[in-house]
């Protein structure tokens, strides 16, 4: 019996009659279904996931979507058909159309259209499955991020990393199954809920690691406490917690025991895996990583105006993601803040800030793909890249009515945007889906957020339609209560 199964058994044993019926509602049938579906391992091609979320949502029209017809319309009034009955976060009245402001070219044998801002990604174009027809139900950041990562626009639901760790556990008992790394100066708008465990036991929530100081806050022993004394303390706490489990039957007490023990093991394992100085210089150069770098923007209230393009924090995180996957971590989530380019204030423009963001992320992402491939890990590691929605084909006009250098931006656009996947049993060199000549509506192979979630679970060997957890009388699933989420079989290798 592995650690995950052992925890589930202890969890079930700890439930009193009141807890049992209060949580499950559906009785013994639901408990049997949980036992069946929680271990629905079908030998998925992917063994791990690295999810790169660009918080704020990068513009697909500046990075992936080559739209010559839209460019011809730059500066002209937006047609009424694209405004009537539509909701926008910031656009008011009749905005001007705005074509892509950078040059595009086709790359690789597959002829992928990519922007000049992605020269490094262009070198691995044939590894990418670019999904050009994603849409979402949400058009504000926090609910859209929650919907993308938890399957629900409201707080309180487990993140996809928590679902995956609940279903598959970790391959290394000395490391968390789900690790979170952030950069860009801030956490996503939805906060830490996007890596929370929701109604799943809290042992499955993401563990956020820092790039400076202790990788995990309060992991090190306090001054005056030796490792041996820490062990004695934990043994005493375990005796107390075991007594509480027998008396009260609260499953979260079991989680507390698990977390204390994991933290003890992590005191040795985490500093080792987080030390990128052990990497050879050619690997550091490949990513653009700098061991020991502490970014000054992490302490700023609004770091966007301080972006310079030479911050290696995201590159360090990409290298750390590879090291964590190598050591058996199941799900690594990278959040990079600062991709919300409205053009309304300094530090959020498409013409100045987006190129800066691309300079420090493009090289590192391409390096991650190349590094995983040369180590034989790309086939078993699914990489997902994207934001929470797209950007409009019109310029944002609530502050500036006309184009102005340093203040070029687009509003939120839920109707069509681009994401990509690589590795983990996904076809490379594929361009899936399409939008109209202006990039406003999807014209081919519409892909929903639930489709993406279903496909990720499927590639990991988890049946998205059966994989569930009983809560408040419902067998809750990442993809929601209906079967509208489709596995995107056309992009599977």
Radius of gyration: 23 Å
Q: Please count the helical segments.
A: 13
β-strand number: 17
State the major sheet: 9 strands, mixed
Structural class: alpha/beta
N-to-C CA distance: 32 Å
Give the percentage of residues in beta strands: 15-25%
Write down the secondary-structure element order. HHHEHHEEEHHEEHHHHEHEEEEEEEEHEE
Mean pLDDT: 86
Shape descriptor: globular
Helix % is: 25-40%
List low-confidence stretches.
Answer: 9-42
Write the layout of secondary structure elements.
Blueprint: H1 3-14, H2 17-24, H3 28-37, E1 48-55, H4 60-63, H5 68-72, E2 104-107, E3 112-115, E4 128-135, H6 141-150, H7 160-168, E5 178-183, E6 207-208, H8 227-248, H9 251-273, H10 281-287, H11 313-326, E7 331-337, H12 353-374, E8 381-386, E9 390-395, E10 410-413, E11 417-422, E12 430-432, E13 434-435, E14 442-444, E15 447-448, H13 449-459, E16 469-471, E17 474-476
Parallel strand pairs: 1-7, 1-8, 4-12, 4-15, 5-6, 5-7
Antiparallel strand pairs: 2-3, 4-11, 8-11, 9-10, 13-14, 16-17
Helix pairs in contact: 1-9, 8-9, 11-12
